[in-house]
């Protein structure tokens, strides 16, 4: 039987005090920061297109019984020059978004064909959302990370500033080894 007070004491103890810690057991906060094995997809959320960021999709998982988590991620888009050059870092960001989408769909069991296209139209977006909805009930491993941004200080060092809204994000989603 679990004792919530003891669980809280052990959870807040200095790292390594009680031996090796499991990443799942070390998860903290209302969103379960950390790595979760065998998380079940329970809902797919769609969002209106943003003029600045394009399309995004939300995935709601049960990390474990009684611990739901909803994260969202931006979908890849085609960059337009718009009077300025498209720099390599901008394109690499879109490439990472495409890779994340492919990895997510594969992890959830979508084994038909992979998408190699940017998601620029409502028809493409609806197709991705509907494909993800067909994968509800499937399991995968995922890592929930704190959302925020890196800010460069005057001395040249970088500091991570968490989001004021308290959102979290997916660091990665992989195929589950846990049944």
Quick rundown:
With 179 residues, this protein is of the alpha+beta class. The chain has three helices and seven strands; from the N terminus they run H-E-E-E-H-H-E-E-E-E.
- The proportion of residues in beta strands is 25-35%
User: What level of helicity do the residues show?
Assistant: 10-25%
* Terminal CA distance: 24 Å
Can you tell me the number of structural domains? Answer: 1
What are the key terms here?
globular, 22% helix, 179 residues, alpha+beta, two-stranded antiparallel sheet
What is the fold's blueprint, element by element?
Blueprint: H1 4-11, E1 34-46, E2 56-64, E3 67-74, H2 88-107, H3 122-133, E4 139-146, E5 148-152, E6 158-162, E7 168-175
Antiparallel strand pairs: 1-2, 1-4, 2-3, 4-7, 5-6
Characterize the structure shown:
With 179 residues, the protein is of the alpha+beta class. The protein contains three helices and seven strands, in the order H-E-E-E-H-H-E-E-E-E. The strands form two sheets. It has a five-stranded antiparallel sheet. Strands 5-6 form a two-stranded antiparallel ribbon. Strand 2 and strand 3 form a beta hairpin. The protein starts with a helix and ends with a strand.
């Amino acid at each position: 039987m679990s004792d919530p007070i003891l669980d809280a004491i052990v959870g807040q103890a200095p790292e390594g005090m009680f031996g090796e810690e499991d990443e799942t057991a070390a998860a903290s906060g209302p969103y379960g920061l950390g790595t979760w094995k065998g998380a079940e997809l329970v809902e797919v959320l769609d969002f209106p297109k943003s003029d600045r960021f394009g399309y995004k999709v939300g995935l709601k998982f049960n990390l474990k019984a009684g611990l739901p988590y909803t994260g969202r991620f931006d979908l890849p888009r085609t960059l337009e020059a718009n009077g300025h050059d498209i720099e390599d870092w901008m394109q690499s960001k879109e490439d990472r978004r495409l890779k994340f989408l492919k990895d997510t769909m594969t992890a959830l069991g979508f084994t038909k064909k992979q998408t190699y296209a940017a998601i620029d139209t409502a028809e493409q977006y609806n197709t991705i959302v509907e494909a993800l909805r067909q994968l509800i009930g499937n399991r995968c491993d995922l890592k929930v990370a704190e959302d925020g941004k890196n800010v460069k200080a005057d001395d040249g060092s970088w500091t991570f500033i968490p989001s004021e809204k308290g959102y979290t994000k997916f660091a990665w989603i992989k195929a589950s080894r846990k049944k």
